[in-house]
User: Fold this.
Amino acid sequence: MDDIKDQTIEIMKITNGNICNRCLGRNFYPKISGKDNQERGHNIKNSLTLGKSLAGKSKECYICEDIFETLKNDVEHIIDEINSSRIEFSNFLVGCRLPTEILEKEKSIWDKIGLTSESIKKEINRELGKALALKMNKEVEFENPNVVVMMDYTNAKVDIQINPLFIEGRYRKLMRGIPQTRWPCRKCRGKGCEYCDFTGKMYPESVEELIAKKVILASKGQESRFHGAGREDIDVRMLGRGRPFVLEIKEPKIRDLNLKELTEKINEHCQGKVEVLNLQLVGKERRSGVKASSTETSKTYRAVVEVEKPISNDDLKILNTLKIIHQRTPIRVSHRRADKIRIREVKEVESKIIDSNHFELTINCEGGLYIKELISGDETRTKPSITSLLENQATCADLDVLEVNI
Assistant:
């Protein structure tokens, strides 16, 4: 107790006695009892008979400059800002920005006396959070809040950050010629020019844009980002149960969405080009989880293969020997992929003749195998390949993804 008394007296000297109970009590948790720092500071002064000597204190607190006295008004200010922004949310996190001099004064006292305690920022955040939770009947959420409220004491204003909304589902791409995400014009890089008819895009629509339009409208969000479990080429359909994706909506004002109704609206808007299934609200961790899963999956493809020389069903039997594939980064993607050899497994192959120069190939394989190059050989960069096994140059005429297993 003598140490506490000596430290308290030293604090009083530094602050000339102008210190509020909270800023005093904060330095002695948990050494001094009390339900909060306000009561703790009060107990310190009374137990050390310092109360009377401080009775004449009239100046603002040396450390916090009486910020704690304005907390009730600050809470009302924050609620007014939230109400005027018309944001829907179920949980929140609150923070604050303080003038540098307040933080420096607090640190200076700690350094002089050798104390380590909870910071003033942490206490303000906690008190604001408790009051806001009670007033708004909302929960404080530290890990993944819907909204982050920042009380800026340096500029006397409230900043509201609306965190993204994440919707997971699967999509089926029923038409060829549609990219997965918006493809900026290669000439103007999205600015708009004659080449792209001033759209800024290489293609008029994408899977992302078709899906996101109705979601942005329903959530009153600002923009979207699309995160897929891999992607198919523009000329490839995505069939079966669809490809997993997470749609990220920036700054949504509405989070409580009727996903069944939204699914119907999206599919109606997509007009048979794209279809979504199994929409569900998820946390932000699924964004990276879905993207990372693309090479940890098995996928089933169906291809129409064209060969230069006539072929028979007996010729196709050799394709059952396809097992382990060594595939160097394909020429067509070498400008955007690391040049390395990837080893992938073929799990099952089925084939049947369509005519003397075409056959249908169904292949189940490890994710990350480039099927067009497995067929063509890609100038021997893929070993073995359909071309090398048949000793007959093969090309992929049509390709569909039938299944993405995650």
